[in-house]
Amino acid sequence: MNLDELRKKIDNKEAKIAIIGLGYVGLPVACRIAQAGFNVLGVERRQDVIEKVNRGISPIEGKEPRLAELLAEVVSGGRLRASDDYRELSDRDVILVAVETPVDGHNKPRYEALRAALNALGSVLKRGALVIIESTIAPGTISKLVIPLLEQSSQLKVNRDFYVGHCPERVMPGRLLANLENVSRVVGGMTPETAETMSALYKHFVKADLDLTDCVTAELVKTTENAYRDVQIAFANEVALICEAVGGDVWKVRELVNKSPFRNMHLPGAGVGGHCITKDPWLLVYGTEGKDVPLRLIPAARAVNDFMPLHVVNLIRQVLKSQGKELFGSKILVMGYSYLEDSDDTRNSPSEVLVKRLEELGSTVVIHDPYVHQYQGDLFEMAAGCDAAVLMVRHQTYRQINLKELASKLRSPNLIDGRRVYDEKQAEAAGLNYCSLGIGDESD
Ligand code: SAJ
C-alpha cells in the first residue's frame, strides 16, 4: 500500500489505527480517533489498564472532563479495544506511539519503553503502514533511533515499505481532551507526502492548526517550547532572589514589568515540577550530544529552578533563626505535595525535594495535600505543634483557609508562602509571622 492508498483509507475511515501506550497521552487520542469513526486498537503493558479500558472505565486519575464518558461510549460501540499482544498490530495501517520518554539522573533520555515498542512493532509491521511518534523525543531521535530500529526489526525500508512521522503531544493534565481538540499540532513527516497523510488523520479530531513540517523541526519545536517555559520561569525565580536581597517585592515588580509591551515575566515560586518542563529541556540539550555546542542557558535555568525548594528551606531556617530556633528538632507543616495546583500528580514535585532536605536537617515534616490521597486530612489538626507552615502549591482550597485558626493551631505562628497566595497584611492581622518568597525586608 502506498501513501495515496493509505490516504484514501484514512479519508473514508477504513484505515485501522493503533495506539501503543494508553497513558495520559495515548488514551485520549485513542478515544478521539475512535469517536471519529475509526477502528482503534490500544496496545498497553499494564494489565490493570487493559482490563479497565475494555470495561469502558477510565484508568486515568484526576479530573479529566468528558474522558470517562467518551471512553465508555467508544468501547461499548466496539470502536476501541485494548490488548497487550503486539501481534495484533499486524493488520494496522497507522500506529501512534505514545510511550514515556523520561530522563535519568544524568539528564540523559531513557528510551527503553520507546525501543521496546518499536522492536515489537517492527516485527509485525504491515507493509505500507504509517508509524507516528507522539512521545516527546530529543532532536535527531527519529533519524538516529526510530527509523533504524523499525528497519532492523521489520527488514523493511522506510519511505518505500513503511512511513514515519513525529507529531509531538501537547496535552495537559486536567485538560486532556480539550487540548487534544483545540491546541495546534506540529505534524512532522519524513517526507512531505507523509506529513500530508498524517494531517489527513489528525484533521478528523484536531480542530486547531496542523502545521506540516519535517521530523527534526517537530522534535525541536516540542522540546523548545518547554525549554522556553523553563527558562522563563528560571528568570522570574532569579529576579525573586534579587528582590529578597534588595528589599523588593518580585510579585509587584513582575506586575509592573508585564505592563511594559512585549514582556511576559512568568511566576516565580517554590519550584518547577511535572514530567514535561523538568525533562524536555534536557531532551533538547541531548540533541547536541557529541557535538561541541556550548550550552549554558538551558542547563542553568534547570539549576535555578531545581534550587527553589532548597531556597524555601533557607527561608524557613531564617524565620526560625530570627526566633532563636533551629531547623533541627523543628516540626514543619508542608501545604501541597503535587507539582501543580488542583492536581493529584506528584511527579518531580518540588515539595519532595523540600521534605527530603528538611528531614536531612533534622526537621519533622507533616505533609498535607487535598488532592494526594496519602496526605489528605484536617489541615488544622496537622498544624498542631508545628513551628511553621509552608505553602508550596497554589491549591484553590488553600486560598480560603482561616488564617486565624491556622495561627492558633501552630506552635509558632510562622507562615512561609512559596507561591504568594496570601496577603501579608491579612496574614499578620490573623496573628501570623508572614514570609513570602520573593519579598525582601528593606531593613536587611
Ligand atoms: N510554574 C512556575 N511558574 C510559572 C509556571 C509554572 O513555577 O509561571 C511551575 C508549576 O508550579 C509547576 C511547573 O512549573 O510545578 C510546571 O507547570 P506547567 O504550568 O508548565 O504545567 P505542566 O508541567 O503540565 O506543563 C504543560 C506543558 N504541556 C505540554 O508539554 C503539552 C507545557 O508545555 C504547557 O505550557 C503547560 O502545561 C501549560 O501551559 O500549562
Describe the structure.
Helix 5 packs parallel to helix 6, helix 9 (about 215-245) packs parallel to helix 12 (about 295-320) and helix 12 crosses helix 13. The model has no long low-confidence stretch (mean pLDDT about 95). The longest helix has about 30 residues, at about 215-245. Strand 9, helix 13 and strand 10 (about 365-370) form a beta-alpha-beta unit. It is built from 17 helices and 13 strands. The chain is about 40% helix and about 15% strand. The strands form 2 sheets. The protein has an 8-stranded mixed β-sheet, sandwiched between helices. The protein is α/β, with parallel strands linked by helices and about 450 residues long. The protein has helices spanning about 5-10, 25-35, 45-55, 65-75, 110-120, 140-155, 175-180, 190-200, 215-245, 250-255, 280-285, 295-320, 350-360, 380-385, 395-400, 405-410, 425-430; strands spanning about 15-20, 40-45, 80-85, 95, 130-135, 165, 185-190, 210-215, 330-335, 365-370, 390, 415, 435. The site of ligand SAJ has 19 residues, from helix 9.
List the helices and strands and how they pair.
Elements: H1 3-11, E1 16-20, H2 26-35, E2 39-43, H3 47-54, H4 67-76, E3 80-83, E4 94-97, H5 112-122, E5 130-133, H6 141-154, E6 163-166, H7 176-182, E7 185-189, H8 192-202, E8 210-214, H9 215-246, H10 250-257, H11 280-286, H12 297-321, E9 331-335, H13 350-360, E10 364-368, H14 379-383, E11 388-391, H15 396-399, H16 403-409, E12 414-417, H17 424-429, E13 433-436
Parallel strand pairs: 1-2, 1-4, 2-3, 4-5, 5-6, 7-8, 9-10, 9-11, 11-12, 12-13
Antiparallel strand pairs: 6-7
Ligand SAJ is lined by residues 169-173, 225-226, 229, 233, 266-267, 269, 272-274, 276-277, 339-340.
